[in-house]
Amino acid sequence: MKVKSKKKIILCCCISFILLVLLAAVCFFQFTNLGYRMSVPYRISFEKAADNIYVNKNYSGNIKEAIRLTEDALERDRAFFGELQCTDTTKTIVIFCDDDNLLSRLGGDHDTNTSIFDPKQNYISISNEYLNIDIIAHEFTHAELHTRLNTNALKEIPTWFDEGLATQNDYREQYGLEAWIEQTDNGKNALPLEDMDTGSEFYAGTVEDRRFRYLNAKHEVGVWMETHQQKGLLELFDKLNNGESFDTAYFK
Of the candidates 128, 148, 168, which is a domain's last residue? Predict the structure, then answer.
């Protein structure tokens, strides 16, 4: 009787464990933004438009135009980095969506989420409101940076660098040099970098507040790129991946 009781207890524990794992998986894929994005290729609410590009069912936008803009954005980023690991060695899924309910499940209408699971993958969500080459190139730059850096290095980089690099491939005038000169009085009122280190700092406040931070971040990284060029950027990635602190690798 005791042996049978032990077997029943073990069986119940195994079943409970399996159920908990299944429940955790369901919660992740149904109720987290990253999990929902990861499951888009398998959802009946979405359909494949091209390799690694998905749109929601009954998408009202111009799918061919969305695909063309994606290809053009990739060419812009490829010229910037020299090659793209986020599409050549890592899968990057692009999701175009014009359904407000689905956008809320995706967790963003123009942003990039990167899974830390092996293999690493990027998931870009774009709504019709943000369907242009600058924003798509901006998001692919995030994806490329996230692909090239290992998990520890990603934890090291400040938000201003992540966004400042992404805006190098975002040519909108609101982030251009003339806007920076005008809004910062040619740098006299520029934001200190330490005020834009974290996401909670960078994305706080009004749209105008955030736009001003993007403007400052783009200028900072742009000046750095003028000096270091593509070669210096790739060397920076190597240093960060080898454990060097961001401040040491970037500012020295």
Answer: 148
69 and 134 co-located in one domain: yes
* pTM for the predicted model, two decimal places: 0.92
Parts of the chain with a pLDDT under 70: 1-4, 6
Q: In what order do the strands lie in the sheet with 110-115?
A: 46-50, 53-56, 92-97, 121-127, 110-115
Measure the CA–CA gap between 184 and 69, rounded to whole angstroms.
32
Q: Give me 102's structure tokens.
A: 């689905």
Alpha-carbon distance of 81 to 97, in angstroms, equals 28
pLDDT tens figures, 102-133: 999 999 999 999 997 777 899 999 999 999 99
Q: What does 11-72 look like in DSSP terms, one character per residue?
A: HHHHHHHHHHHHHHHHHHHHHSHHHHHHTGGG-TTEEEEETTEEEETT--S-HHHHHHHHHH
Same domain, 110 and 188: no
